[in-house]
Write a structure and sequence with these properties.
Number of helices: 11
Distance between the termini: 11 Å
Helix content: 40-55%
Strand content: 5-15%
Largest sheet: 8 strands, mixed
Number of strands: 8
Length: 282
């Protein structure tokens, strides 16, 4: 693939598997490699914000160091806050106090950064950007990473939103449709991976006010496997480069073992460095 100025960057989600992405992005920042257009979903959106704000290791500290210190994943948060992650810690204390987020630097570079959400009312993906309003930017990334069933719905612009990965886990087609013919995709699954479970119809009493969301949830596995195949096809055609874990994933979507997370981060950083070194050859 010819690496061009207009090449886009696509960031998959995957919950705590996103530490792989944070490793790759830290390597990119080390080598001063920034893309003019970035589209990211779920955990990819969280990591993407630290990349856009030019804050290396911030995502790693949030996902590994702070997890070890604050244990912010658990059922008690689901009971008290309606989310399996401690939202007050992640979206208030982290950016404003513990791991300060540089909003000024973020807004200087956020023009080409889109985050994917799923509109609960329409059951479709929305691609949202914000380069002025702190609260709206926070709401978008919160919605993009709000896993169904274990997170409350988040309102953005008056619309009910959940995790963008429900309908667009690897938004490479969005990048292509917005004029970026070549793309670098950071995936959080090894080559050849496919979800082996079966889609099941979402019961009527779950998200009863959002029938189109239920339809989308009932086709999640099929949709994701199609996207994985698309990535491999585009890669074979030379239209994208995909940076992905080299071995089967040992980190779960909701993972608390920081040793596993550390290994995955280091793998991402190593592969990101290798990618940057190859680009220097050209």
């Amino acid at each position: 693939m010819r690496f061009e100025r207009n090449t886009g960057l696509v960031l998959e989600g995957g919950g705590m598997r996103g530490v792989f992405t944070s490793g790759v992005l830290d390597a990119f920042m080390k080598h001063d490699l920034y893309f003019r257009y970035v589209v990211a979903v779920s955990a990819g959106a969280c990591n993407g914000m630290s990349y856009i704000s030019r804050q290396p290791r911030r995502a790693r500290i949030s996902n590994i160091d702070m997890l070890a210190k604050y244990d912010y994943i658990g059922l008690r948060h689901l009971v008290t806050q309606g989310c399996v992650f401690d939202r007050k810690l992640l979206y208030d204390r982290f950016p404003n106090e513990l791991v300060p987020f540089d909003y000024d630097e973020y807004f200087r570079h956020a023009q080409g950064f889109e985050m994917v959400t799923t509109n609960c009312r329409t059951g479709r993906a929305e691609y949202l950007a914000e380069n002025e309003d702190r609260q709206r930017a926070s709401d978008i990334v919160k919605a993009s990473s709000s896993l169904p069933y274990v997170s409350k719905i988040v309102e953005v612009d008056g619309e009910p939103m959940l995790d963008g990965g429900i309908v667009d886990s690897i938004p490479v087609m969005r990048a292509i449709e917005t004029g970026h013919k070549t793309n670098v995709v950071i995936s959080t699954r090894n080559y050849g991976f496919r979800e082996t479970g079966k889609d099941r119809k979402t019961p009527h009493f779950i998200y009863k006010n959002y029938p189109r969301l239920r339809v989308a949830l009932s086709h999640r596995i099929e949709t994701y496997n199609r996207q994985l195949q698309l990535v491999e096809d585009l890669e074979a055609q030379g239209d994208i480069v995909c940076i992905r874990p080299q071995r089967p994933m040992e980190v779960r979507r909701i993972e608390k073992d920081t040793r596993k997370l550390e290994r995955l981060y280091e793998e991402g950083f190593r592969l990101g460095e290798e990618f940057c070194e190859k680009q220097k050859l050209f």
